[in-house]
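Troubleshooting log. The previous run stalled partway through. Resubmitting the same two chains, unchanged.
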Amino acid sequence: MVMDREKQRQRYIAGTEGAPPVPPPGGYRGAKRQQSAYVSPAPAPATAGYSAGETAAAAIEKKPSSVFSRIVLAVAGLFAGILLIVMIAGGTDLLYGVTMFALQLVVVGLVVAALVTSRGRMLGSIALVITLLFNVATVGGLSALRTSAAGTYDGMKSDEQKHEEAYPGIKDIDPQEALDQQSVEEVRAAAADLFADVRDQVTAQFGYQWVQVGDEDLRPERNGYGGESMLYEFATEGWATTEPIHDYATKVAIMDLIDQIVVDHGMYGLYAFNDPSESSIDPSVMTKLYGSDDPHTQHTWESYTENYPDPMRFYADIYDLANGDDSFRSTRDAQNARTGEPLEGLQLVVIASAVLQEADREAFEKKLEEYPGFY
Amino acid sequence: MTTVSTEPSAQSASADASAAASALLASNRKRRRIRRWIAIGTLPLTLAALLFVGKLLSMYAFAHQAISAYVVDDYAGSEASAHGQEFLNWFEPFKAPFNIGTALAGAEKLPEARAELEKALELAHGLEVCTVRINLALVIERQGDAAVADGDGAAGAEFYGEALTITSETPEECNSEDAQKQSSDPDRDMQQTKEDTEDRLKQKQQEQEQQQQPEEEKPEEQPEPQPSEEKLDELKEKLEQGQQERDQRQDGEDGGGTGTDKPW
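Second attempt completed without errors. Output:
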């Protein structure tokens, strides 16, 4: 025992010149990790359940990853690459399709299989990370965001649907109507005549001067089959008086005068949306739209007529800031900033829906030949 | 003495190695136990995280499927996909009923569509309400069209009035650029769509009103000489034709600028 103690003591002091003493066999108390590393340099997972001798042997006989796990890693990488390419190509529908989902399941199965093999764990783990980052759900989500931002929801349209999408008319409306009724150019001319008469007579009778408001606007109309038709919603430029109109009797007189003029131009008599005596709009809604259900205190008067079966709709509005609250004032300010129109006074505009431009007539008729009896 | 002390020394070394191996095994077992308990302890958190990620990713998938199906007129498919958004409907909760309602509208199931869109309106906040209000107004307008087509002009006028209420209550913020960015129909100006709808509703309501009592109102609003009975009939016929044409036009706009063509 004396000798043993001496030997042990020698371990601590022999050859220690300039170096710290080595740890005792079994390591310092509480230093388990260092101890295990000292006794067995093999990786911790490999030592679990084995003796120190076995782990040491395993460390010595470290084997390379299996061919299977390498294949799995390659497959996971390849599939991720395919997903990204499909996303870049805008194939969100393909990403969320059954084929991709089935392929994804196969990849997941392979990755799991690689993970449970002893020599495939490392590469299987890498494949798992790749699969978790790039799969049909994550890449599909990114692709869906791109599609949403671009608004390119084409879906999986059949050839028939694609054919319908290019229909030049509007669903459920006989295209002959577009050919028979006023064209954009005719509406423009008729509106110009009408505006000129209204301006002249209002100026002559009330002395108001006029200013043009904004430019005309041509907005393509959709065809009801997911595409754009060759017809337009046409809004003329507007005309506005430069002076405000606050007096109730003047407002009535102006609307009466305009009523006569529009009838002279072949339109129906004016209909006042804001007037409870003739409008069917609910008083509460009227208050929201016009500030009150009493024309004396309304901030907006809105009258309308049309020339059916032709497409012209004529609007005559009077804005009166004196009857409006702050909200109305800010609305008018915003409109003024947007179009430059006067804050208050009388305004005129003509709108026509589903009208054809003369220049498009021939192309429209030619295109319709591809759709016999179709609308 | 030396030979006597060698054997105990070897025994001692063997005992040390054995003790070290035992200590290693014990520490490994302890570490495994700790790992297991950490795994068990964090399992709820892990599951919650997985669920969270799954929910987020499924939102995109279901929304995309709902829209894609709608685009190709597969309204049943669109509705089914939109129902997928209802599960754990925590994020942008208005979108699930909005998409369901829009798909139902596409399938002309108008009362059901209206109920879903009204639900969406309750769940929508801020600028989200803009697009919901537009689609809801369009669905109610179609209810009015259906009532008129069935010969019930009074009910039609009532529906148009309700739709007009929906549009008239649209917040002023819906005219902003930010609202346009959130529009479910980025190819069309939201303010313009709202104004078009409002104008159309006013006209339809007025037409129904005039058809209800055509002879009472005309003399007051038209200063020109009283039209003859024949002329009145002609006017009425024209108005009816106009109504029919507008109905057709409105139907034609299913998928059009004022239609509920995009459920997102």
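Takeaways: Chain B touches chain A through 78 residues (CB under 8 Å). The first helix of chain B runs from residue 2 to 71.
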